[in-house]
Design brief:
This is ABC-type transporter, periplasmic subunit family 3. One of its GO terms (molecular function) is ligand-gated monoatomic ion channel activity. There is one protein chain. Helix content is 44%, strand content 20%. It is of the alpha/beta class. The chain has two domains: 164 residues, Periplasmic binding protein-like II (D-Maltodextrin-Binding Protein, domain 2, 3-Layer(aba) Sandwich), CATH 3.40.190; 94 residues, D-Maltodextrin-Binding Protein, domain 2. The strands form five sheets. A five-stranded mixed beta sheet has the order 10-9-11-8-12, with helices on both faces. The chain has a three-stranded parallel beta sheet with strand order 4-1-5. It has a two-stranded antiparallel sheet with strand order 2-3. The protein is globular, with a radius of gyration of 22 Å.
């Protein structure tokens, strides 16, 4: 009799677990995407070479190609939703998109609001320096002085890093990367702090006025962000990232945007 009761309890437990799994899947964003036939991606166009507009007004970049590749693996279309950076996490949390793929650094503060996938690229903060300071400033430590004015983008990890490592300098915050970097070119700031990929490209385009101190002084893994409580969606994305890093797809996309500069002639 005891064995019968144990077997019956095990059967009931398995039934409950099975029902719970079905309920989780029905609520999963991945299920919504497959049912809808479209993945809705939040990003902010303006971060070279991750997300930007070409001369035809289309949003292109490293993140876009990753998103399109993932959508192809799902058998669905992509809806790119250009979203201001300060509203991008709220947009995800209110279901205005399924996922954020927008060069977002994984931080503890953000992780309290969203769940991050495994990192899909590693970057760090570097410095675009005024040509007038070439030879006088060799690292971020030299800029940590009240006589210097530093420009960076509001609400980004560059903002936090600048305030942490350059606390003695005057810091001016801007809505976009280009506005901040332009301050240095126009002589209104001594340096611009931002992610290395953007600085490398912008610096090469303006090498007559800017010096790129290209040794990163922070370590920043970038991840895709999804809403909490969705193990099925997280499992798919992480397995997908592992697959494309192993089969050469990731390298092909990476080389297109970070090794070659052929794409630059088509950007606004």
């Amino acid at each position: 009799m005891k064995k019968v009761l144990i077997a019956f309890a095990a059967m009931i437990s398995a039934t409950v677990a099975s029902a719970s799994d079905i309920n989780l899947w029905e609520k999963s964003t991945l299920n919504d995407i497959l049912t809808r036939g479209e993945i809705q991606v939040c990003l902010e166009a303006g971060y070279m070479p991750f997300d930007m507009r070409d001369k035809k007004g289309n949003i292109v970049g490293f993140d876009v190609d990753i998103a399109k590749s993932m959508a192809k693996a799902m058998g669905v279309k992509v809806d790119l939703r250009n979203t201001a950076w300060d509203g991008i996490i709220p947009a995800l949390l209110t279901s205005k998109c399924d996922i954020i793929i927008s060069g977002m650094t994984i931080t503890a503060e953000r992780n309290l609001k969203v769940n991050f996938t495994d990192p899909y690229i590693i970057v760090g903060q570097s410095i675009l320096l005024s040509k007038d300071l070439e030879g006088k400033v060799s690292s971020y430590r030299d800029l940590n002085n009240s006589k210097y004015t530093i420009a960076t983008k509001l609400g980004t990890t560059a903002d936090y890093a600048t305030k942490r490592y350059l606390s003695k300098a005057k810091v001016n915050l801007f809505e976009t990367e280009s506005e901040g970097a332009l301050e240095v070119i126009n002589g209104n700031a001594d340096a611009f702090v931002y992610d290395l990929p953007f600085n490398a490209i912008y610096g090469s385009q303006n090498s007559d006025k800017l010096v790129h101190l290209d040794t990163p002084f922070t370590y920043e893994p970038l991840g895709m962000a999804i809403r909490k409580g969705d193990p099925d969606f997280m499992n798919f994305i992480n397995n997908y990232l592992a697959q494309i890093k192993g089969d050469g797809t990731y390298d092909k996309i990476y080389n297109k945007w970070f090794v070659s500069d052929a794409w630059m002639k088509n950007i606004q």
